[in-house]
From TrEMBL:
InterPro entries: Alkylbase_DNA_Glycosylase/TA (IPR051912), DNA_glycosylase (IPR011257), HhH-GPD_domain (IPR003265). The keyword Transmembrane does not apply. GO terms for molecular function: alkylated DNA binding; DNA-3-methyladenine glycosylase activity; DNA-7-methylguanine glycosylase activity. GO terms for cellular component: cytoplasm; protein-DNA complex. It comes from Rhodococcus triatomae. GO terms for biological process: base-excision repair, AP site formation; DNA alkylation repair. Its EC number is 3.2.2.21. The lineage of its organism: Bacteria, Bacillati, Actinomycetota, Actinomycetes, Mycobacteriales. The keyword tRNA processing does not apply. CDD domains: ENDO3c. Keywords: DNA damage, DNA repair. This is DNA-3-methyladenine glycosylase II.
Amino acid sequence: MTATLDRIATTVTARRPFDAALALAPARRGPYDPCFHAAADGSIWRTSRQPSGPVTFRITQVDARTARCDAWGPGAPDLVDAVPALLGIHDDATAFAPSHPVLAEAHRRHPDLRIGRTNRVLEALVPAVLEQRVHSVAAYASWRRLVTRFGEVAPGPAPQGMRVSPAAETWRRIPSWEFHRANVDPARSRTIVRCAGVADSLERLVDVPPDEAARRLRSVSGIGVWTAAEVAQRALGDADALSVGDYNLAAIVGWSLTGRPMDDEEMVAYLEPMRPHRYRAVRLLMLSGRAVKPKFGPRTPVTDHRWH
């Protein structure tokens, strides 16, 4: 690790190849996420709110087993300590041996896929709540508006327009009409405010087993199985967290792996033999280029909550 007045840098080297961009990709909430920027040179810029404060960091892949991190801001010391976890360096997929040819081929082509963990629960939870029961494009727009409006300017030499997501206290104090202007209905906005109110307890979930963390997340009103899984995938690096209740996932798994649609119950049963790697299997399916879901009708319209 090296440090200057404004920057802290560290280099991470792993025994096995890893792809930093793949590990960081789930943290991106849409193509215009103000907390995430993929640069033309292949480096990834992100912002975060660490226990010590906001931080901007840049991850650059040096070679198949090495990545460099440069970090700016008060949260830089905490962030550089967390880089191995972010990049999934300790994620172990050696026992994962899928029998389905699509997954087996994807696993062979992407041996460098790692499930990273941010260890920042609220940062993963708020956008997951925004994505409940709405189209991704609408949730991404809401996230961008709220973070741009209430977040902080990213510290350091961040690309233009980057922001740090709001602190828990800020989320708690956002007026209801501002959520409304961001196209967030009252049920989701109340859940966000409720989660921000117990943020300290939620952040401690990184230190408990995944099943217990999911149970405690679901004890918060408005957080169900799907939302808890989405948080576990990103904040906790849970390679088994399956997004049951997703609008498209069961059908995609069914059509792609069996040639017929599935519902959630059938998907859970089908993927049961892949424990504790069900989320890894889904990631590989999406990377395979073989994920399909036939269209049988027009896409449902995007709901605009701002006019009612």
